[in-house]
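Continued from yesterday's entry.
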Amino acid sequence: MHFGGSTYCTREHDSLKISNGKWCWFSRGIGGYSALDYLIKVKEMPFTQAVETIMGNLSAVPPTFAPAPKAPKEKVLLLPQVNRSATHAIEYLHRRGIDYELIDFCIRTGRLYESYPYHNVVFVGVDADGKPRYANQRGIGSDFI
């Protein structure tokens, strides 16, 4: 029922006033801001029943979180810069007991080179198409800084 201005009351409870999105039941000293508060405090409904009443008796399923599938990024193999000559690498590998012919074959086929500027030996692994897929660097200097 319209009480006056923007205030309304119910036929059941004349001391229950509803105004501007708020309600107050003066005789009981309770009030609230939402329909949910009203149903729980005035109509004495359990929380779940009050929610079902507001939702129209629909069982609301909470949303589930599912991260968006990420497209796999193409990985790029970044190899160290090649030195103009491989003299340090060749000498290091030969001192380790590897034959010059094998070292030369690996350098010609791109499986081995000397890096610039640190003169490390770089061993390159390739796939069936000869494309580099992994690499390992071996320091050949004797001084540790």
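--- second protein ---
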Amino acid sequence: MNRRYFVKGVIATAALAVGAPSIYEWLRLSRKPDLQYLVSRKKLIGELAETIIPETDSPGAKSAGVEEYIIYCVSNNLPRKEVNCFIDGLHKVEHYCLKKYDTTYEKCSIANKNEVFSMLPNSRLYHNNNFLKKVDRKFRGRSFFTLFRELTIIGYCTSEPGATKGLAYDFVPGSYESCISLKKNQKAWATK
């Protein structure tokens, strides 16, 4: 056997071994999103959103209809790789609950829901290395937890119940004041 062909073969095998997972991940995130699955998991999305913003003296995320907003935004506004990441995150939550608690997320106790939710931010690698985190985000997009948290908060704060009852709302705010101090136990402003 010629040494040159052997060295080329070793290099090609090593490159394939290193590149195969990246190619697989890219193909997985570039596939056509299953939007029917997303719509069918409306109840799960509502329960996850309610875990972030629970109902107290102010309305929770489910009362504000955040799940409709999240489904609309994921279906129409996000890039394909982030849509697939979001759908994969929903799959992981369902699988984790069925495996660990033998029930769906919606039927879990509050303590179990909080445990599942605390697992989500740590589901990606490189959470201690900022450089690798940036490379990972550029390649795969935002994580499921980051997307879900952002969409829940934006959906809640822009909904009528969230803006009027969850936040301090002044229908006619008057003149612009650049710096207003908050009083003790005051809600954040929705309009100022």
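The mean pLDDT is 83. Residues 48 and 166 are 18 Å apart (CA to CA). Will compare against the first tomorrow.
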